[in-house]
Each structure stands twice: as structure tokens, then as C-alpha cells.
Design brief:
single chain; alpha/beta; 21% strand
């Protein structure tokens, strides 16, 4: 909606008892604050360079699969069946970013899968000093949610909190807040199909907006369902498939003597960067190979 100044200002001036010049000045201020302004490609590119960082996962194979690691401003999704290692991957990511990169982590637990003892065990495997272990634990903030409405409230609170914290820092300093979010169970908690779709897309917008505007790396987990061919595919359907920038399928491969040494595989299902090999056969058929790397559960 646009208010034509020359048509309505005189009438508003009489009704409000304010001079036309005052109303025109107010209008200009409102337009300056709330109207979108175009920007050229060079400015957008510089903004991306200044706000993008790559966070190592702590696993060389997984970093290679994700083209060096987790990108701030983007949403990375790990999908898999129960026991495939989704929670373990999220815990490992949180510990590595806290211990090695000394960055704050917000772990939003919607599945009840977070184990404090396991978290401490992973930190102890990387840090010897009790003081450093305490510091690493303090950099990991855990928030528990039980439904999608609670999740949306938490994301809004985090967005407000992050904006204030970054604003209080000196210019040029950036903080990164990877988020571990299990979206599958809380979205399915809504029983009405139409409502479920609306809430799912609202959650998607909230996550993408947080990643982009605050320059944080967002990590979510998702389940799998059976496809028509008897295999598995990510849950939440086609609409959700457009949300993550990168999607990795975790699968349990084989036992290696104990549950702690179970081998997992990580396969890229979606990536805006990962290169894939194309092969043209003698008959002219175009074949492709999926980029796959083994991910050991450590």
C-alpha cells in the first residue's frame, strides 16, 4: 500500500491538525526505513564475503563431503533412520565448535536425545583441563522444546537475543551459533494436514531467516520414510526438500566389534557446491556417480 502525498496530505493535515510539510517529512522517514532498496551484484557479493564463514565439523571425510564444512547463512540437514547416528553427529558438531573453534553453540533438543553425560564424554576426549572442559560446556546452551509452537517461540527468542549480543560487540566481530534442531517429530505432532503444511513452512522461514540475517550455521535433523521402490527417502515431503541448502543421508553400515564402533556412511543427497562426476558411455547414455564418503562414528 502506498500513500500518494500530494493527494491525501492536505486532507490529513486538516484532520490531524498538522502542517502538510510535517506529514510529508514523516512520510519520507517511513519510506526510508521500511521501503526496499535495490542493490547491485557487487554489493551483494561483498556482503556475502563479509558474512560467510566455514565451520569445520571435526571430521575430515564429512568436511570433504560438505565442501569444507558447515557454511554460515545456510541450513544443513542430516537425515536417517533411528540409530543412524544423527544425534551423535549433532553432539560431535557441538563439541568440536565449542572446543576447537571456541564458538557458542545453541542445541535445540526436540527429540529428547541429548545426553549430558555423552556430551561431557566427548568434551573430555578433546580437552584435558577441567577448567577448559567447564568453559566448553558453558559455550553449549541447551534448549528443550516439546512441540512446534514451542520451537517457533524459541527461534524468535534466539533471534532477538542474538541480535542484541552481536549489537553489543565491537564492529567487525562476528559470533556463530550453530543450531541442532530435530524438525521431523515436532512437525508431525500437528495432526491436521493443512495445518501441518502451514506450520512446516512457517518453521522453514524462521530457520532460513535466522541463518541468513544473523550469519549463523543452522543444522537440522530429519527422519526417513519408505519410497515406492522399497528404499528410503527423507521425511516431510517435497515442500521441505527445498528448504535445506545441503542434505546428507546417514546410514548404518556394519558392526565393528561394539556399538561404539559401528560404521556409518554419509551420502550427499543435495548440495549447491558438491561436484559430481558424469560419465558418457559409448552408447551415449549419461551416467552419474553419487558423492559418498564413509563417516566413522567416533
Amino acid at each position: 500500500f502506498q500513500l500518494p502525498a500530494r493527494v491525501h496530505v492536505p486532507g490529513l493535515s486538516s484532520a490531524l491538525g498538522r502542517s502538510p510539510n510535517t506529514l510529508v517529512a514523516v512520510r519520507r522517514v517511513l519510506l526510508a526505513q521500511y521501503s526496499p532498496f535495490p542493490s547491485n551484484g557487487a554489493d551483494v557479493y561483498e556482503e556475502v564475503l563479509g558474512s560467510t564463514a566455514i565451520l569445520s565439523t571435526g571430521n575430515k571425510n564429512l568436511d570433504k563431503l560438505l565442501d569444507s564444512g558447515l557454511y554460515t547463512g545456510e541450513l544443513t540437514e542430516f537425515v536417517g533412520a533411528p540409530g543412524s547416528g544423527k544425534t551423535q553427529v549433532c553432539l560431535s558438531l557441538a563439541v568440536n565448535i565449542s572446543c576447537e573453534l571456541k564458538q557458542k553453540v545453541v542445541y535445540v533438543d526436540s527429540t529428547g536425545g541429548l545426553s549430558a553425560s555423552r556430551l561431557l564424554e566427548l568434551i573430555q576426549s578433546q580437552v584435558d583441563s577441567a577448567e577448559q572442559q567447564t568453559d566448553a560446556l558453558q559455550r553449549i546452551e541447551v534448549v528443550r522444546v516439546f512441540d512446534v509452537y514451542g520451537m517457533l517461540d524459541v527461534l524468535q527468542d534466539l533471534r532477538t537475543s542474538f541480535t542484541q549480543q552481536v549489537g553489543e560487540r565491537e564492529r567487525g566481530v562476528k559470533m556463530y551459533f550453530p543450531l541442532g534442531v530435530g524438525v521431523w517429530p515436532i512437525v508431525l505432532g500437528s495432526q491436521v494436514k493443512g495445518e501441518r503444511m502451514a506450520i512446516m513452512m512457517q518453521l522453514a522461514r524462521a530457520l532460513k531467516t535466522m541463518a541468513r540475517e544473523l550469519g549463523v550455521a543452522v543444522v537440522v535433523t530429519n527422519g526417513v520414510v519408505q519410497d515406492m521402490g522399497g528404499g528410503v527417502k527423507p521425511a516431510l515431503g517435497r515442500s521441505w526438500s527445498y528448504v535445506p541448502n545441503a542434505r546428507v543421508l546417514l546410514q548404518r553400515e556394519a558392526e565393528m566389534g561394539s556399538l561404539q564402533e559401528t560404521k556409518r556412511s554419509a551420502t550427499v543427497l543435495k548440495s549447491s557446491r558438491q561436484v559430481t562426476e558424469l560419465h558418457i558411455t559409448g552408447s551415449g547414455t549419461l551416467e552419474n556417480q553419487t558423492a559418498t564418503d564413509a563417516l566413522d562414528n567416533t
